[in-house]
Amino acid sequence: MPEKPYTWALLLAWLHDHAPVVYAALVTLIMAFLGVMRRGGTICQALLEAPMCMLMTLGLIPILEHFELPHNLALAAGVWIGYFGVRKVAGWVERIAQARLPGDPNP
User: Model confidence over 3-18: pLDDT tens digits?
Assistant: First the structure.
């Protein structure tokens, strides 16, 4: 790759443009891993939950764009998603969905 400096320039330009998203994903990954370990989980559990939290944070980016909010908010949300974990966040989402959507989704 050293003989292709244009490739490095493209990579660095892409990273510069997407830095808040990449940073939010990495911080979420680390926070989720540490959160599982703090709660007494195994490394296997941490290795499964951390990417799930990271994907939840990445899924939040289009919502921020829809409401014309800055991508930097994904970092704060990612830290909290990583701290609370997948189960707690999924429970919150399910309660919000049940309160806002009529009918029983599981008849």
Answer: 777 888 898 999 999 8
Measured between alpha carbons, how far is 99 from 104 in angstroms, rounded to an integer?
10
Which three-class secondary structure string do you get for the chain? Answer: CCCCHHHHHHHHHHHHHCHHHHHHHHHHHHHHHHHHHHCCCCHHHHHHHHHHHHHHHHHHHHHHHHCCCCCCHHHHHHHHHHHHCHHHHHHHHHHHHHHHCCCCCCC
- Cα within 13 Å of Cα(30), Cβ side: 7
- Is pTM beyond 0.85? Reply is no
Could you tell me if 23 and 73 are in contact, meaning their C-beta atoms sit under 8 angstroms apart? no
